[in-house]
Design a protein that fits this description.
The structure is a homodimer of 330-residue chains.
Chain A: H1 4-7, H2 10-38, H3 59-63, E1 65-71, H4 75-85, E2 91-98, H5 107-112, E3 120-124, E4 144-148, E5 152-154, H6 156-168, E6 173-175, E7 178-183, E8 189-192, E9 209-210, E10 214-218, H7 220-225, H8 230-239, H9 243-255, E11 260-263, E12 268-270, H10 288-302, E13 313-317
Parallel strand pairs in A: 1-2, 1-4, 2-3, 6-11, 11-13
Antiparallel strand pairs in A: 4-10, 5-12, 6-10, 7-8, 7-9
Helix pairs in contact in A: 8-10
């Protein structure tokens, strides 16, 4: 039987209904389309909290890293190092942080000498600041960052191995230069390397920091760095130093574990003697180490506690370079 | 106003009600008591699935380990080793798995030479089986097991360090003897050490097993081992070999990662030449290595796949024994 539909004046009503329904459908489709366009792109920028599998991303973004190299007054070394680093396996892109204020970057020359294995981006800075390299660069597409000083040459073998180690310890700073702090009875901390007394934690030595001038770490820590107390930036700017100590504090606070994992380098070289610029690097300043002890104590104040933890784990590559480097007299 | 209560014949009803209520209360209490007695004791024997903090247990059970040492026909070595191992830091107890069937244990002599730093338990076996050491001994009170062959001497420094490493990698076999398998184009696997070809995974060498005859692992794996297919026990009994390969398969399957973490020993010695018994150990049999390749292939059959994964991480102790063993020419 035909229901109340049929009771209406037949064909006219039918056409109006049809037209109305069509309009409704079209409007709904437009709204749906607009909503889809407004959906945010899902980004997996968060810091790893555990050993959770990475979300599905482009293969290269997961299996490669971005080199960030800050440079000041050593363009000859920069270019020598770029020729080396541009060909490192698993490198995705290079970001050069150009601290030579007012000076043209070598971008033109770089392009004229192409093609190059990976893109190199020159980020021109307005002020010569040590912490310029710790910006959250939008150019970053990979989870992993490799940070290098502009006078440090590390072999491809070391880098490939250290990158694989970082992939197993993504929440740590995985690098080649360990340092430590020690506490004294007065409560004042001091900063140093192996020549400093042991933290008295048993056999051997301990480290509590891995310097970021030759290390891999997760890009999330650059985001994190933007959220630090103003006093941290002031300290780094005042000393033009200690950005790496600050990063170790940040990572240690985040993980509650030792901030770094030390990978013993087979072939690491400091090229600063090779520069024509005559510029020797900040660590030659007389007050350099004293400043770093000063920074440790200031950061403890700022963060209201000492988050750094000791580790004595030293990682080397099994069977490399010496094929039998793991053998013993058993 | 007084309700239907009061309508009932006063005091008699009151007393009956009181009696009834008391009985109900007593019954409830008894039931509650019975239920409490039936509650299972909460044990945290489960294998670690992630880096979750250990539940609250006695301090010593968390910070110490149990040495399990199986022995056959080398009691002189056993006693020499017990004198060394009984004093290792963080040792909780020793379990000696006595495979000398029908022979008296040295327990009397051991007791007469007390006191000793830790308890030593002699577990008399009825059949001389290689896999006797993989029982889930009720004497185990610690999370960590240190398993040692009865001819292997590892220094206290190495053990203290390796134990601290295990505490950071509790789901792995952390030990001093790495081995690997390789696959061949025919699909047949072979077993070996560094003299075997590389798994062709890049620079250097790789390992896919850490032998349990000198290693720390979580006691949960002993429980796990009791749940394996019968064919695994048959294989181990048939060869009197390969229990350690089977354990590596088990661990790799459980974690989905490389089963072991290799800690490079500073001082590890094989004492088998020092024995008066003339007994040399199973690995001198002509067929020993061939058997182990055979076991790898059988286990792949039994488990329907190859779960072992490669690693090239080699861990050493920072600044020990050489105070500056991490320095480089930078």
């Amino acid at each position: 039987r035909c229901f109340h539909f049929c009771k209406l004046p037949g064909r006219v009503m039918g056409i109006r209904l049809l037209r109305f329904t069509s309009v409704v459908i079209i409007v709904l489709l437009l709204v749906a389309g607009a909503l889809t366009a407004l959906l945010p792109t899902i980004k997996d920028d968060k810091l790893p909290n555990s050993r959770r599998e990475p979300k599905t991303q482009s293969q290269s973004a997961l299996d490669s890293f971005t080199l960030i190299m800050q440079t000041y007054n050593r363009t000859d070394l920069l270019l020598k190092l770029l020729n080396h680093y541009q060909a490192i396996p698993h490198l995705h892109k290079v970001i050069v942080v150009w601290n030579n204020i007012g000076e043209k970057t070598p971008e033109e020359m770089w392009n004229s000498l192409g093609p190059h294995p990976v893109p190199v981006v020159f980020k021109v800075q307005t002020v010569n600041r040590m912490r310029n390299r710790l910006q959250n660069f939008p150019d970053l597409e990979t989870k992993a960052v490799l940070m290098m000083d502009d006078d440090t040459l590390v072999s491809a073998h070391d880098l490939a191995f250290a990158f694989s180690v970082w992939q197993q310890f993504p929440e740590h700073i995985v690098g080649f230069v360990p340092r430590k702090h020690i506490s004294t009875p007065s409560g004042v901390y001091s900063y140093g390397s192996f020549e400093l007394q042991n933290p008295a934690l048993g056999n051997g030595d301990q480290y509590s920091m891995v310097l970021i001038g030759a290390a891999f770490f997760h890009r999330g820590y650059l985001e994190d760095f933007q959220q630090q107390p103003e006093a941290v930036y002031a300290l780094i700017d005042e000393t033009q130093n200690c950005d790496d100590i600050a990063m170790n504090f940040l990572v240690a606070k985040h993980t509650g574990k030792p901030s770094g994992v030390f990978v013993k380098p087979v072939d690491i070289r400091n090229l600063e003697k090779d520069t024509n610029s005559g510029y020797s690097g900040m660590w030659h300043r007389a007050e350099h180490l004293l400043q770093r002890s000063y920074c440790v104590n200031k950061l403890v104040n700022i963060y209201d506690g000492m988050p750094l933890k000791y580790s004595n784990i030293m990682i080397s590559q099994f069977g490399f370079p010496n094929y039998a480097n793991h053998k013993n007299k058993m």
